[in-house]
Amino acid sequence: MIPPRSRLAVVTVVLTIGAPAALAQRPAFAPQWPDARAVSFLSPTTAVLNYRTAAPQPTKIQLRTGTLPASTPGQEKAWSDAKVVEGDNRPTLVHCVTLTGLKPATRYYYRVHDPDYKSNWPDHPEAWSVEKPWSREYALATLAEPGSTSFVRIPVKVLIIPNVVNLSTVAPDAPQPAPMAPEEIELYKNCVRQDLLFQWVNSRMRYWMDCEFFEEPEWQRLGDERADLPDFYKKWKPGRDLLRVFDPGDIGNHEAKPPLKDQRIWTGQVVISCERRWDKDKKRWFYQGSGGGTFGIDWMLWGDETQRPAPGRSEWLGGSDQAWLMCHEFHHQTESQYGLSGLEGEFDRMVFDHFAAKFRSPNDTWGSDTAFNHGEHWDGIAWEMRMFTDVQYFRNIFGEIVTAKDTDGDGIPDDDSRLPLDEKRLGSDATKAATDGVTSDMDKVLMAKWVPTTNSDLRDKVYNPGYVPLWQLASGKKLPVEAGAAGYAWPKLRETDSDGDGVPDKDDPYPIYPWEPKIGEAQIKADGDLSDWADVKPIGHVKAAGVECTVKTAHDDKNLYYAVEITGPYRSVMFNIDADADGWYVGNDNYQIVVGQPAKENDPEAGKSPPRDAELDQSGKPVLRQAVGHICSNRGWPYFDEGAPVKWTDPKNKREYEWQRPKMFGDYKDIVCATSVSGDKKVIEIAMPNGSGKSPIQAGPGHPIGLAFYIRLVSGGQLALYEPYTLFTMKWE
Fold this sequence. Notes:
Blueprint: E1 10-16, E2 39-42, E3 47-57, E4 60-65, E5 83-86, E6 92-100, E7 107-112, E8 138-141, E9 147-166, H1 182-202, E10 207-215, E11 220-222, E12 237-238, E13 268-279, E14 284-287, E15 292-295, E16 312-317, H2 322-340, H3 377-387, H4 390-393, E17 400-406, H5 423-426, H6 441-445, H7 468-475, E18 518-519, E19 538-544, E20 547-555, E21 559-567, E22 572-578, E23 590-596, E24 623-630, E25 645-649, E26 656-660, E27 672-678, E28 681-689, E29 704-712, E30 718-720, E31 728-732
Parallel strand pairs: 1-6, 9-10, 9-11, 9-13, 11-12, 13-16, 18-31
Antiparallel strand pairs: 2-3, 3-6, 4-5, 4-7, 7-8, 9-17, 13-14, 15-16, 19-20, 20-21, 21-28, 22-23, 22-29, 23-24, 25-26, 27-28, 29-30, 29-31
Helix pairs in contact: 1-2
């Protein structure tokens, strides 16, 4: 039954909270009702709330200021003194409340009058302070007053455990491992800081992960003690449960229980266990790599009562890419913060960072799209952080609202050493919102994604020359980069043309890439000879880590072409081609091509790659190793259409399913790959058929095609032609 129209009427209430009469006037902002957003407007003194009740009710809310949710220890009576704000007494389903006279840069918690409210947590109906007739609590924070900026501070404790040995791998005659040196521990901290900078910038400086580092340097063991090992390995403490809450005031206590000696309230926690293993074949110690694990912010509601209030918790091992694991795993904590703050809708959420179309993966019940127009890894998270609005950032019920001086009101703090970045370190003018006189400083900063490297072990990282100055600006620390290194540019806040290509930043679709985003027409023959490419301009160039590489593209009426000229030792190059420029995890138009050097011995035929540890012949001609579609309508990750079988067990009825992945396009034999070698220079030419169905290229004039390009190095690291994992979109001419 459809309720009467009168019951669907929107009740609009303008309420003044503790302000003089002058502030009680209706604000100039005129909201459009009904509005599905829980909070649709914020200013230093005004907020517009929108909500629905389960049944028609008068408009009434509870309001309180504070820093912590009422479910935090010591905050149990937070709502006892809350202000009840009553509006129109006419019952309605849809409500809109405009609050004026609020304090700037202040968090307000609120509950709405909804006697029939049902919690999303059936096992915990009181979750988040549900107390009939009031709903759960939500929060908003007003903006800072002019001359200041505000942001959400998320306090995070980070524990690094540098000296952990897996005893099950140790040979009795293995040399004794040395304790991790302080400068190596600093590498881990810097990787974490690189992610803090990334998150700070891509949130438009609204989300500050304030990390404090702790160390537990004592030797620890994984596995049981062994009688056959030297005394050095005896009487070590067992390694801790990495997802258990740790006590910064009692680091050595692996079973700490409340009350903790450290009484501070933390929103997040990270534990990095630098597990060492002995490689009996290579006769060396190495740090074990891993993925990560994360628990969302449990707080006071469920789980082990001995760990409450439980912050979000992430853990991983020390042999992987520490910056990326911090980025990816802590983003899960951020997702949980906002999800548990009430941002749960399809169009009102912090997007889950496992990228996929909704309902596509049988192993995942996630019901919302998590893939959009972005590349892999860091680029996807940068997209998510940028799409989140200021209003959404300020609805977090966790952490605290902090301010900093911002003279010109551009959102960038003037000079605040607490933060990952400010105007002083950027070298911009804190009295001008647009230091270059044209483009706002914030827009200039956001011209880059601030991604440090492609994903690799922190000991193998290779930084693109375009990132090095960004990190030095923010941290004051230098990164290793060779003399004469070259790559993409970086935002220059005092200049109007950051990449020096003659196109002003304000008009440049890629203001840090000095290459035209065009696929021009040319008469090309894929034969390993680049003489017919002489008049074609590069679409990318990088020189670093002993390698120099230039890439070009062109087309004729039959093919899309790529040309690569590379000098220096490398393993392979990889093209990730987004044929419709709509995102690497969207649609069936994505294609990956890998071309690499041959192995010195027992090289497999074309279409296959040699083992990772194979010694390569740098004097040989490059070989086409892989050409596969990245088909994102496939059921289940990974999405490559290599024709491999997929097995799945339905978690509800335990029925087993098996199917063959479809082979949507042709294989490597349908791609022309011509290569040549002259001294240290290798040439690679690729021809992909256009409109044949053998590849995803279906292009005509004006059609966009995206490209991410990578160089895998002999050292184990990897160079990106563009900012790591971003797609450079070019238009077919």
